[in-house]
Amino acid sequence: MDVSDIMAFKPSQTPKRPAGNDVPLASDETIDDPSDNYEARAKKRKLAVLRAKAIAAKAEDEARMKQMEQEAMESKLKRNHNEAVGDQMIKIAQLVDQGENFHQVVLDAPGVKRLLLSFEKKTLKNQELRIKFPEDPERFLESELELHDSLRELHSLATVPEQYPVLVDLGCVPSLLGLLSHANTDIAVAAVDLLEEMTDVDTLDESSDGAEALVENLLVNQLLSLLASNLARLDETVREESEGVHNTLAIIEHILEFRPDTCKQVATAGFLPWIVRKLKVKVAYDSNKLYASEILSILLQDCSENRELFGEIGAMDSLLQQLAYYKRHDPAVAEEVELMENLFDCLCCLLAETENRKKFLAGEGLQLMNLMLREKKKSRGGALKVLSHALGGPGGGLLCRKFVEILGLRTIFPLFMKTPSRGRRAGVSAEEHEEHVINILASLFRNIKAGNDENVRNGGGSGGIKERLLCKFVENDHEKVDRLVELHCEYLARLVKTDKVLREEALKWEGTEEEVEEEMYIKRLEGGLFPLQQLDYMMLDICRNGADSIRHRVEQGLKLRGEKLSTVNEVVKRWGQSMEGEEADIQELLSLSEA
Hints:
- By secondary structure, this protein is mainly alpha-helical.
- It has helices at 3-8, 38-99, 109-132, 137-153, 164-169, 172-178, 185-198, 201-204, 208-220, 223-233, 239-258, 263-280, 287-301, 304-312, 316-324, 334-350, 354-362, 365-375, 380-391, 397-405, 409-417, 422-425, 430-447, 454-457, 465-471, 475-506, 513-545, 548-560, 565-578, 583-594.
- The N and C termini lie far apart (156 Å).
């Protein structure tokens, strides 16, 4: 073989290995052989199309079969689940059927006696085992669980308050109250829970005889002292014990609502000191703290002895410190707003006592309220209310002078000139805000007597405390006099509308003539008469004791609005004639109205 033969040599074509997705063709199916004629090539193409369609149909059948298998599997799982649920329902029905055969206690007198005797036995058994094995809890653990279960069974008594006398007659109340001092706080908390449900006011209202018998027996057996002692040992970081504190406060609320005459008894039993300590806790908000503030408000509202006791135990400073937090911080949640309002209400109640006003002054309560007004936080409304109570009445003279000395006039007169917008009043209505400001200013006028500074009468510099107050009405071209006249006309118009409505309503009222007149007078006070009386008193005071230019400005302002100074005199005169109080105050009003 020469070189030319080697170069001309070509190896035979090796068949190509088919790919996985290649479609095998029959031996006679070749791709467009150039040697084939047109008909042969068309036939081969037609066969290729038919084969591709057959492959696609097969793929669709496989996908459909796979979907059917999946649906069959899901159907089987669903059927198994339904069968399991059905078995459970059958078991539940069987348990219900079996439950019909359980022994049920009929809560008549014999049934209640059986429950109570069982409770007494378990209580006695637990006491004996605790005494016998004080160092071995395992010996009395089972009896403690039985006692706890027995307490839960007694909850059914709350559904039959008419059977409470049976509980009293069998002498079970001392045994139940004895559990409040049980070494195991779980037992004590369970006893508190039971007492809370049994003393619920809605339950007590169902049977007055049973309720009276139970509550009287509870009080005789020192319920209040035992509850107060139990409170001292409960740890509020534990959820169950925190609920026990809440239920204890609920019992106190129920007792106070059912027997309001126990208000002093509750305070002296130890609850007042506990509440004061509770309010000292430095947390932003706590539900039990809110409840404690509500109970404190109830205790102080209608009981002067409790208000005096609160001051004697040195709690005024604690209350002011708690309120001081809200000087620069707004409450975080709505419940905390309620807590803050409760604390302000408590402070207002306390200021009804003269000694508490002295403690309020010594604790710089005036300065705190003045700062709250300047900070413009949500505490502003409460501070106004407190100042209204603190400065008013015959005991407010010293506080009024102090308020002027700490530059309180700079704070109160801007509020007098313009009522803040709704967002800055912090929940206080415009009318309430306005009336508080008017009351504060009227208290300043009534409790600070005028001096003899002729310089003030001529519009010059201030002399004494009252002179500083009077000079405010000369500033800025008598703008405060104009505001005073404006408010007089507004409240006078409101009173006219109130009188028109009352004349129609009075025709339907029943009672003696005196009772109708008294009721109408109260309605008139609520309808604008009281603020009008105070505004007119201030107007006559500044006309009599202020600069000579003030009276001319008052008469001019009234004339522009179609009113006369004689109307102001008449309002103050009638106020003096209807007032019941110090003779000096009455004569002062009458003399002002005649000036």
